[in-house]
Amino acid sequence: MAHLTHSPSEPTGLRSLVADWSADREAFKVPCGKAMMWIFLLSDTFIFGCFLTGYMTERMASPVPWPNASEVFALTIGNAKIPLILIAIMTFVLISSSGTMAMAVNCAYRKDRAKTAALMFATAAFGVMFVSMQAFEWTKLIVHEGIRPWGNPLGAAQFGACFFMITGFHGLHVSAGVIYLLTVATKVLKGRYEESGNYQIVEIAGLYWHFVDLVWVFIFAFFYLW
Amino acid sequence: MAYAEHHAPQSFWTKYVWSQDHKVIAVQYTITAILVGLVALVLSDLMRMQIGFPGRLAFIDANHYYQFVTMHGMIMVIYLLTALFLGGFGNYLIPLMVGARDMVFPFLNMLSYWVYLLAVLILMASFFVPGGPTGAGWTLYPPQAILPGTPGSDGGIVLMLISLVTFIVAATMGGLNYVTTVLQARTQGMTLMRLPLTVWGIFVASIMALLAFPALFVSGVMMLFDKLLGTSFFMPAMVSMGQTLAYKGGSPILFQHLFWFFGHPEVYIVALPAFGIVSDLLSVHARKNIFGYRMMVWAIVIIGALSFVVWAHHMYVSGMNPYFGFFFATTTLIIAVPTAIKVYNWLLTLWRGNLHLTTPMLFALGFISTFAIGGLTGLFLGNVSTDIPLSNTYFVVAHFHMVMGVSPILAIFGGIYHWYPKVTGRLLNETLGKLHFWVTFLGTYAIYFPMHYLGILGMPRRYYAYPNYEFIPPSAQYLNAFITVAALIVGVCQLVFIYNLIRSVFNGQPAGPNPWGAASLEWQTPHTPPQHGNWGPALPQVHRWPYDYSVPEADADFLPQTSTSPLTIDEATHGHGDKP
Fold first, then answer.
1. The complex's ipTM?
2. Is A41 within 8 Å of chain B by CB?
3. Count of CB atoms within 10 A of residue B67's CB?
4. Residue B558: helix, strand or coil by DSSP?
5. pLDDT in tens, B390-420
6. Rounded to two decimals, what is the model's pTM?
7. How many helical (H) and strand (E) elements, i.e. helices and strands, does chain A have?
């Protein structure tokens, strides 16, 4: 690497950072699609950031007590009421899907088409499982607990509003991600990227998927553990 | 992508309508924005008729007045200024100025325009729903925005919010393109520190748009839920028209925070491209390099960053902890530093320059004047103690119209007069252009300068009529009538501009490839107007910054960025010992 040795006239330290960034080459040594995904995810971070900040403000401003998370999100299995069990499984499923996604990216770079596609389908399947469990959770809250976006027999009305809005918006992200993964996986299987030999698209889809997982960790922490 | 892969579209539909060519998309954006801007212009003149000559136009009742105020503000800020700077100028200039064949995602770019058009159509549709468009004020503050009593609180506000969310989708698709293209698609030799300031302004504004619009998106979605689902995000418990409402426990202040977390950066999303365009116009038409190029770049970046931590200065009268007021006043005033650097650098660019008072130059000079005036009144509004008495008066209207209305629109006019020859191959008529400039420039001063005085008199803004306000002297009405006459003249004068735009496409004087003798890359295309793919078979190579004007010992009075001459007045190049 020629860049590692600086000639005396080349800037060092912070200035070298500026010099590298402002050089007449791609600012990020990645394809445009990947750069765009990074920038998009930064923008999306601000959307979720605003949602979560809004939720925290609502919760702190609410004159009525907030429902107790470990009771609302408990599930009765057999005769035992286990707090947060469903959400623990959902989180586990989603984190696992990040694992299969990472393996898919690895296989894609080794140009193992069948394995890449299989792992991506597995990731998508985990995603579908997650959304299904979310649907189950929504059903439980709506039908059994009577929680609505506009009202909540257990306490603050904003609980239902924030919960359905934020988990709904995240669920839409997961659903969109599933469609995205299925599209790319099908193309991988058909050998669409064989000609160019460029499997970057798998990594780009992976970036999105990991992001959606990461956002879930924050929603989980702020909504279920607070 | 190799040049050979580009097949220029042939049929009318693929070439001019469903086009993926950034130049066509830019023109589509520009025309749509100008048309919707004309609607907003007519609305503003109707408002002025009511204020200047109350009751003369009988059809303007209080509800209509508020609807005109709201739609005028929202259209001007979002659908005209933002769309025209980023979608219009950004689309046209970024690929040409950085030496790219197109945006990096042409299809996404095309989609961006069509989604923008959809947002405009949804907004325009709100004029035709029962109850009319929303009259909540352009800030759409809840609870009033969605409650009966405010005009358009049913269909109007819903369509407004849906239109805004749609616009944000379009702006995101466009913004991703602009940022990625600047970062990844520059031609050989085009370092970031050789970009024209226009590109710097649009680039930073696009990043800001990607980070600020999310807050508007979120507040829009939440308010839609409040309206349609009956959630209480922004709605406290209250009695409306004698009825206790079902809403309870929400926070109206949260909306204000989200709105202004978008709203303040939005000011600079509009201002930074204007800064960039004015810098380039001044340099070209003064035949001098821009003074302090690096400082100008850093000022743009710093202004962009600071603008995210000043938002609550729009909320002093909402009530806040005094320490927060202190914090936001301080950050607000700190922005004056990089902004003042820019104004001084513009003046020093003009200092002993060879000034060509062409129409674009006049508009650029006009921008400095209006922007400095608007910035100075900002000092009063940025401080809590002086803001509170002025906040609800015409002083605020005067301030932000000078700084955010007139200034960016002057930069837009200047930019259009400057780049029109590249877009069409013909010059705009100079006589009509100068008429347009002087009427607009002097007219806007005639409109907004007296408003400062009205504001200090205490005349409240947003009011439909002023019966029983004894503290306002009767003479204020003379000023208001004067302002209205000036506004009508300025409004009519814009028709001269429209006529000039249309006429010159067919009858304008042929411009040649580089009528202003400009050094930046967009003027060095092999064809004017540039063809599909912009650069013919080979991409240009850049050897210098875009400001080598009046270089001592050079043959011509400018050296284009593609010139290989060893002469330059770029200080950065001097510093690295490239000078012979």
1. 0.92
2. no
3. 27
4. strand
5. 999 999 999 999 999 999 999 999 999 999 9
6. 0.94
7. 7, 2
What mean pLDDT comes out for the span B270-299? 96
Chain A residues within 8 A of B219 when measuring between CB atoms: 50, 54
Bridge partners, B549 (sequence order): B558
Q: What is the dihedral of CA A168, A174, A175, A176, to 10 degrees?
A: 110
Considering only CB atoms, A150 lies closest to which of B221, B229, B577, namely B229
pLDDT tens string A76-94: 888 888 888 899 999 999 9
Contacts with B231 from chain A: Cβ below 8 Å: 149-150, 157-158, 160-161, 165
- Pairwise CB contact (< 8 Å): B233 & A63: no
Residue A152 lies in a domain: yes
- Residue A9, domain member (yes or no): no
Q: Which residues of B touch A43 (CB under 8 A)?
A: 172, 175-176, 210-211, 213-214
Give me the numbers of helices (H) and strands (E) for chain B, helices first please. Answer: 17, 2
Amino acid at residue number B40: A
Which residue's structure tokens are 């204007």?
B274
A16 is a domain residue? no
**What is the dihedral sign for C-alpha B524, B525, B529, B530?**
negative
Q: Is B192's CB within 8 Å of A22's CB?
A: yes
Number of domains in chain A: 1
pLDDT (0 to 100) of residue B574:
52
Range of the domain at A120: 26-225
> Are residues B180 and A35, on separate chains, in Cβ contact within 8 Å?
yes
Strand pairing of A74-77 and B239-240? unpaired
Residue/partner pairs of B299-302 with CB below 8 Å, 24 or more apart: B299/B338, B299/B339, B299/B341, B299/B342, B300/B197, B300/B200, B300/B201, B300/B204, B300/B272, B300/B275, B300/B276, B300/B338, B300/B342, B301/B204, B302/B338
Transcribe B162-219 into DSSP letters: HHHHHHHHHHHHHHHHHHHHHHH-PPTT--GGGS-HHHHHHHHHHHHHHHHHHHHHHH
List, in sequence order, the alpha helices (H) in B103-184.
106-125, 155-184
pLDDT at B575 over 60: no
**pLDDT one-digit tens code per residue, A104-160:** 999 999 989 999 999 999 999 999 999 999 999 999 999 988 999 988 888 899 999
CA-nearest residue to B104 within chain A is A32
Domain limits, chain B: 24-235+248-575
Report, as an integer, the average pLDDT of B85-92: 97
Residue A157 in contact with partner chain B when CB distance is under 8 A: yes
Phi-psi region of A222 (alpha: psi -120 to 50; beta: other; left: phi over 0): alpha
Name the band, by pLDDT with cuts 50, 70 and 90, for residue B47: very high
Cβ of B555: how many Cβ atoms within 10 Å?
A: 9
* Closest-CA distance of chain A to residue B227, Å: 11
Task: Say yes or no for a CB contact (<8 Å) between B180 and A36.
Answer: yes
Residues in A closer than 8 angstroms to B210, CB to CB, are 39, 42-43, 46
CA distance B192 to chain A (A): 4
The answer on pLDDT for A59 being more than 80 is yes
pLDDT for residue B112: 97
Q: What's the gap in Å between the CA of A159 and the closest CA on chain B?
A: 10
Tell me whether A158 touches chain B (CB under 8 Å). yes
Domain CATH code at residue A191:
1.20.120.80
CATH number of B24-235+248-575: 1.20.210.10
SS3 A7: coil
Q: Given an 8 Å threshold on Cβ–Cβ distance, is B251 in contact with A58?
A: yes
Side-chain-side CA neighbours of B263 within 13 Å: the count stands at 20
Lowest mean pLDDT among A222-226, B63-67, B352-356, B369-373: A222-226
Write the pLDDT tens digit of every residue in A164-184: 999 999 999 999 999 999 999
Amino acid at B487: A
